[in-house]
């Protein structure tokens, strides 16, 4: 729905839309976390709340997963997402910065950057060349959706919370210039924590670029800090919280983070009385595939879960929660002139007793799902050109003694070692490198090591550290020497069509389990992963994400759009040797009971 009379948007002492003061009431919906069939549902519910704008990040690692190979179809069709928003009467804020954080794999950076020259998030010319190549393609998708072109984009972000990482202003100017050279007119903005140190380091206030803040409470204090920073630079700008955190993300082994609905509504009301707001998140959605991020904590990294429910006003499925209705009441009280509608609610289905059809050990189908790469010493995932998933390393070990000590030197993130197909040890991050004693009863013995990349950090000082290279990065020692002559099987698991179930299944080995279900109608649902250990699930060859019995979630969301009438195939890749003869589809997510502080 292109406008014949183009809107104008300006940043003066107020936001001005067509010359009139305009309060931005925005909600974050990441198109890449929501199945495309559900974009309308989520955007409609945002408009129905009385909000006028949608905000989204743009993930570089999905749009350019391999250097020079670009993808903008299906769940990555940013243009279609913006079009649906415009058809519903929503404006848009787009954040196509090279780095997005977003609790997303590597903060949105493509993993192949780890093998390239150039310091990321800096004015290093080698890095900026990669950004420029990406922007050559991306900005052609964004440019037609600017207000000046009849589209709905109000503002464009230059960088994301850069003040929490660096202070290289030449880099910020370079990113802005790369956008402008490719037809992006702005207005531009940066977003940072609201205190002076981050605002000074991460803003472009000297360049007259709007400064916005990120926080989730205490709007008066935080906006006052921002106003003070503005005044120091002679600016009187409208105040905006670009990320008002209405919930929080979750990590494995930790309880779900909770926030009271009425308390949130009061906190948002306080913010709206002073400035504009973008609710982060409005609909959180799902980290499909291997796209969950990871929190950096000293020497250990803490991976985040598949669900990005976030405790948002719309739940993972996209349906309104108590927070939605509390916000709806607050908006009506504060702005009774804003029209509101009843939100859309999707149905969910239950399917019991879906039988197991086939099962096969990974080792028995290895040659059909991966072709080995030979190397004298183990290579990292990035050296092998793989971004995410698993790597299986295989070599032969000669018997020198009845009992031998093995050590994996410098591996990430989780290692499972097998001797002649029998599981010997599982090690995770800080345990990797500890002794593994094995008993040798053959003259020659097969050693297999399955390494899982559990997600790269998305925030902080480790963003470009060697710790974000995955797999075995130094080698494997037997006794006091490094072992050589390795076969390396890449397992990105972008699909499971090549799994051959005619092979054998062995207990305690990583394995594939295939289930089939005939559906006469489809709806959203959650697959119950009770009784499984750890792994990923594929629905009709789509990787819907990771599961792990440590909690807090014990189910995975399946959008209706990934199901079909007729026969549906569900494949579970499980690494702990645990499975169920039948599985169930649930109408609601399933959680593990956990107490605060429990690990």
UniProtKB/TrEMBL annotation:
PANTHER family: BETA-GALACTOSIDASE RELATED. Residues 378-491 form the Beta-galactosidase 1-like first all-beta domain. Keywords: Glycosidase, Hydrolase. This is Beta-galactosidase. Pfam families: BetaGal_ABD_1, BetaGal_gal-bd, Glyco_hydro_35. It comes from the Bacteria. Belongs to the glycosyl hydrolase 35 family. Residues 510-568 form the Beta-galactosidase galactose-binding domain. Residues 15-333 form the Glycoside hydrolase 35 catalytic domain. InterPro entries: B-gal_1-like (IPR026283), BetaGal1-like_ABD1 (IPR048912), BetaGal_gal-bd (IPR048913), Galactose-bd-like_sf (IPR008979), GH (IPR017853), Gly_Hdrlase_35_cat (IPR031330), Glycoside_Hdrlase_35 (IPR001944). Gene3D superfamilies: Galactose-binding domain-like, Glycosidases.
